[in-house]
Amino acid sequence: MEIYNLLKKQARVFADRPFFYSSDQSSDAISYDTLQITYIEALHRVNLLIAKLESININRTHRVAVALGNHPNFFLTLLALNRLDVGAVPLNMDQNIHEINHILTHSEASILLSADEYINTFSKLASDFKNVLPVLRFQSDWKDEKNLKQGVRSTTEVAIVYTSGTTGAPKGCILSEDYFLDTGKWYENIGGLLSLEKGEERILTPLPTSHVNSLVFSFMGVLSSGSCLVQLDRFHPSSWWDDVRKSEATAIHYLGVMPAILLSMPSKNNDYIGNQVKFGFGAGVEPDDHEEFENRFGFPLVEGWAMTETGGAGCMMVSEEPRHIGTRCIGVPPSQLEYRIVSEIDEDVRTGEDGELLVRRSGANKRSGFFSGYFKDQFATSAAWAGGWLRTGDIVREGNDRSLYFVDRKKNIVRRSGENISVSEVENVLSRSPIVQRCAVAPVKDSLRGEEVFACVILDQNARASLRAAQSIFEFSRKYLSYFKSPAYIAFVDTIPVTSNQKISRAQTKKLSEELILSGKVYSFIALKRRGERMII
Length: 537
Prior knowledge:
Strand content: 15-25%
Helix content: 25-40%
CATH class of the largest domain: Alpha Beta
Number of strands: 25
Number of domains: 2
CATH architecture of the largest domain: 3-Layer(aba) Sandwich
């Protein structure tokens, strides 16, 4: 309940200062009753939520799945659950119903709290999967749920956040109070270009509350410094700068795809906003866009590196000069972080050579502030910490001034618009299509999204390569995957590159995918990779 206690403390210090600001650019499906919630008002609302939750016997044995979108109610609910020592499972409602069902089942959630706009989704979930999880409408009185059964919660987390793994289904990262509080302190005290003035900042983010950037970094940075969180429902390029100006945001959170999109929009006389915005905090800006963006809009994009598994305890940021703009520099590792850069045989590489980044906390407790493990997956947790270091799966190199530079990902993922997509997960789904004999998935470069999903497919002997076959495979994927995970490109091949032990050669598959793109021998489904988009064939 320490996060709730921090709110109580801040409500005394910053009582009438804004805690949440809600933009009227948000989705029409969500209505806000106010544009601004102060710290003292937030505490009052949280206490009302606590009383409602207690009235239906919610207690520390329970885990509550939360589907409230990018809305202040999400954070108010998180604070109320923290006061009751109840675990939260944030849901990403852009995910496919099969993925949501997996998370609800795997997380052992005992009840689900939903905004009105998602009720139909959960009705379908109950119908299709016989999922009898009680669903509460956020604005209802909940008086019919007083006999809620005891839960089966086996850990004492603040939240379990599901993130794509490299071996298939998403894994649940257990995030403790220390994880949240350490990240808040880290953000509050990092200084340099990311300096926060207590009680004065307005941090704007369009990133989903189901991801730690918004759930922990933005939220805890704001709460720890007595600042204001401007949480948009999502990234709206056409109204982005109107939102920034109207909310009086002093900082923004971004992913690499956002600067590219904003730079592609027509230049206006009032593009410069450096007299209002102090910094952008994010990762993945394209090197060719970095300097151009800063010159045009007038504030620094402060690049960094972190994982759900590391939180703020393992975060690196280029918050001091030299920033090495346009080089994918992620900063000098801070003093509280120990690191190694190793070869494939686990030997330290020389300065300037590429290797996998390994990290851990300085001091006696090497895991302090990091995630507590993968839920119900001790094998994966042990593998992640093999040899006493968190194995990040990211390839970096070190410069002469100790700055680290991001090179590539060793892990089998596609990084699309900030989403980590497991190639194994996509392959597992595509392989179930009745016309697919075998497939291999790889990332290919995309100018706006960073990377896209490419599928090399060997067809079943009874199927023939055609647009209709590609459409069938794409539509099959949409039944089981989030829209962003489905293949943007499908190519039919006779063979798939394999290693000597007959495993898919990831390097060769990636090279083949790039060659097929250049040859034009692909079927493109980029236009159909949109929320709710479906084709008729």
